[in-house]
Amino acid sequence: MTHVVDEVPLTLEGTPPKTLGLLDQGALWANLAVSLLGFSGALLLLNPLGDAPLTLAAALVATLVGSLVGSAMVGLAAIPGTQTGRPAMVLLRGLFGARLSYIPTVLNIVQMIGWGAFELWVISKGAMAIFGDAVPYQAWVVVAGVLTTSLTIWPLGSIRLLRRYVTIGVIISLIWFAVAFLSKAPPQSGGSWAAFAPAVDYVIALSVSWVPIAADFARHSRSSRTAFTGVVGGYTLAQVACLGLGVYAVAIAGSAAVEADGTAVFGPFVAAPLGALFFAILVLREADQSFANVYSTTMSLQNLMPRVDRRVISIAIGVLTTGIALVVDVNSYGAFLGVIGAVFVPMFAVLAVDYFLLGGHARWNTEENAPARWSMLVPWALGFVAYWLTTSTPTVAPWDGLWAAVRAAIGFTRQPWMNGALGAALVAALVTLAIGAAAARRASAARR
């Protein structure tokens, strides 16, 4: 009986237990901030525009600033989940209405399944970097898929497991590799601060990609402060450490090699003294990324199917994700997922303004009969446009070319200091405030 009480309800009709403390949330988000291919992300951090590399100091400051801004967005998105007990996509019934919430829900399902498959690919490539071709890629994918699916069956137990055991191993591993790399990497010199803003944009994008899942875990936090502090503290510290370590790993592996194949960054880790052992810990830990993606997919589907047992959904999604990782070139899927993920930056801003500033916390209806709020689609759409007008982060050539043509057509010139994530959030927030003010005036006139 204790196990049932301490776990996530099987359907949306159950009451979520409030069992996750600060250490649980901090450990979860710290682990999510450490990614195997996040180390190769140091390439984009150091030279986000491709022709204006940063100094080491500029890159590290950009990492800290971007992590703080991005994780603060994720932390704020987590608070409504704690206060209402609702998963992220179910919360959007209050923002958009029940039917309209299906739009971001479907987008989140698509991107979470894609990222889940991508993480299984990463885990398998990491394992092969340690063991070579003795075990084929497909076998590692299946093993990682089974482990991922098992974690989603007992999600709160899995988070407590991360906190008690895995996080300690990750901290030791990161320190071990930091000492090893600092003695081997060539000196980091040269560069400028010219591309500082695009570097911050890149780091924010890494962080806010977690906005759509924040409430899925925060709904089980003991308090809003616990959820927010756990996200910002755990994620910021770990992401700064991950990207900082990546700078030296890329320097050792060679930027050209890592640019050609992101998994080339694994080489310095395995080659370090006792590297295979400590890298194996990081590979095992990567399962929390695929776990979070599959579990968030399950929670999103429960917005569409609120009375279906989440365990059934998790198993089905786990099988589907594993199948995709077996047959699809998920490495090339990453840029497409970045395009989808950008829709959630302005959506967060609309949510934050409506919930925290316009009284949404007191009036949101998150039931299945929540009426449509069409006006909230306007700031979301305008924020999405603002993102692509101002961002300097490249995705896929046809998509980037489309927005270059839009800029030319309207006579808009993107400035070096512009930041896509912040630009999208600002536009969406201001338009939401304007709509809220207009609604308040209408209500006041009606009362008179």
From TrEMBL:
Locations listed in the record: Membrane
Record field: transmembrane: 28-50, 56-79, 100-123, 135-153, 165-183, 195-215, 227-253, 265-284, 312-328, 334-358, 370-389, 421-440
Main location group: membrane
Keywords on record: Membrane, Transmembrane, Transmembrane helix
Entry membrane topology: Multi-pass membrane protein
Family: Belongs to the purine-cytosine permease (2.A.39) family.
PANTHER family linked to this entry: CYTOSINE PERMEASE, CYTOSINE TRANSPORTER CODB
Name of this chain's protein: Purine-cytosine permease family protein
Species annotation: Nonomuraea guangzhouensis
Lineage: Bacteria, Bacillati, Actinomycetota, Actinomycetes, Streptosporangiales
